[in-house]
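Objective 1b: paired records.
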Amino acid sequence: MKLHTRSKINIGLFVTSRRPDGYHNIETVFYPLNLGDELIIEKNNTDTAQLLLEGLPIEGNMEDNLLMKTYRIFKERYGIGGVDIRLQKQVPMGAGLGGGSADAAYMAKGLNELFELGLSHQVLEEMVAQLGADCAFFIQAQPAYAEGIGNLLHPLPLQLKGYYLLLVKPDVHISTAAAYKAITPQASGCRLGEVLLNCEVSEWDKHIRNDFEQPVFATHPIISDIKQKMYERGALYACMSGSGSSVFGIFASQPDTNGFEPHFVYTEAL
């Protein structure tokens, strides 16, 4: 079974409060992109999973990979057999794009189909939510307003058809934990979903923000420079995604990508 995963951008991100459990409550809108990894899952004759990683480098121990963690959840709950997993990594890590979370979600969807478990979207979302705050979003990968730690999803009829997206990620890794420590939570003062639905894209930056930008830009000015360059190229709206380090711009026409090399550059007709 071959699956093409997705990624996402955050359109607006407010860190509104710190929770007793140490996490933070946020308000954001997840918007899916076609940029994704290639995931192949096949049954094998063993009673365990074998993982082969290719493409862009992935940090960490193999057994701690979200794909393996997803498999172990299914193994424990449903007694599934062994599988061979092959991941061609194309979404860069530390980019604020949810690449690893998407891999976990598509792994869950793939195992559900491969072993004919018949699990609903709701059940799959509940299962993968324990692996990461934005994992549940990728089960359906539809535009959504998110609350809580990013796990409380509300479908949002936001469509950007006719626009173009330019995504640029410099060779900078942002620690999400460190980014949160640099933020003082505050009320958003904005009905995010309503703004995105009722305002022109060119008006978004007057009403919404990404709370991570200020501390991240202070320590990594190259990211701020990329955002500024997008506006100079005619972006209607530009913003850092998640806690960084990627920046996206939304354009009315095909954007000019010259001058952004050697950064990771991706474009998509929305």
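Objective 1b, second protein:
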Amino acid sequence: MDENNSQDITNNNNNAFLTRGCCHPPQLYHDNSNIAKHRCCKLDAFDWLKDIELPEDQPKFEIIEVRFKNSRKEYFRCTADLKLAEGDVVAVEASPGHDIGIVTLTGEIVKLQMNKRGFDINSDTIKRVYRRARLSDIEKWLNAVELEEPAKFKSRNIARNLSLSMKINDVEYQGDETKAIFYYTAEERVDFRELIKVMAEQFKVRIEMRQIGVRQEAARLGGIGSCGRELCCSTWLTNFSSVTTNTARTQQLSLNPQKLAGQCGKLKCCLNYENPVYLDALKNFPNPEIILKTQNGEAIHQKSDVFKKVLWYAYLNDQSNLMALSVDKVNEIISDNKKGIFPKQLEDYALKRELKVEYSTSPIEEEDINRFDKMEERPKKKGPSKNSRNDNRNNRNNRR
């Protein structure tokens, strides 16, 4: 039992440092310059300006990007005499005390990242880097990380005992063990003043509560999507754009919540990836609500093939007979209809015809799923049956 507990604690510590961009927990008496690698980093960023040399008279950009647990990244001002590189463990200014993080970006690429995220480069509120992490800093950091998983479960029990309708998803301890951030989700506003009072007495640290959405919750917990890959929000996606059902309609997708919803319960973020391509392709498509008028009758829109630029129409009195028309031909017919010109029939312009098959809902014996519930009959033994033996006996008696 003790071996299993120690193994679980080791796995939890490894996972906790993986969320901080470390391939393995830092070692106290070893070189920790290689604990952070691109293949291990969650929400990793690649410095594509690394090999570009600066002009001789241009000083190196003094602000660096430091990552902490999960998606939390912040910017700190570094002194000129402190030469830092990607993967260095540093002690940075926090409120209160100091925090421990991993350097992810240095140089000119940080300036572009700050502009992208809306940070003011010349702001006086940017905190500073204290030093490279010392042995005592890393030792405190290791102890703080070990406290996170037990604190998460204890805080959940406290919230449940106080009857608070909230879910605590993650806990992040500051590197000096003086502060802990509790991330939670809740559908309604929560009064957690009593909760903070109880948790402060329980954990003996300063408590900070941060509410996150269900998308951020999925990003922190991680998982595998229906595509078979890791969730985008837990690997590279940082900006959560709103996704609407109009996006699914634009891409001709069936409005099935089970297929369109992600693990967070909201519409999948990947629905937005190809939406601009569909919108660009649909610019020349006519309004599907327009009815095509012919001498043979009126035809209504049934479905569209966006990339083949084909629309399928069927007559109102025969909707099982589908005809594929090109976008140009449909626009031409609509233009003629406005002028009072009606073509003879759509069959003359059809690229392809198709019959809509109506499937019966009555179960077929061979396809009935209940057929597996039937007990298999035992094979009968070969030989005369009991009735045949009785008939033979009766025949012999009659002969006598």
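Residues 1-238 form one domain. The chain has three domains: 1-238, 241-283, 285-355.
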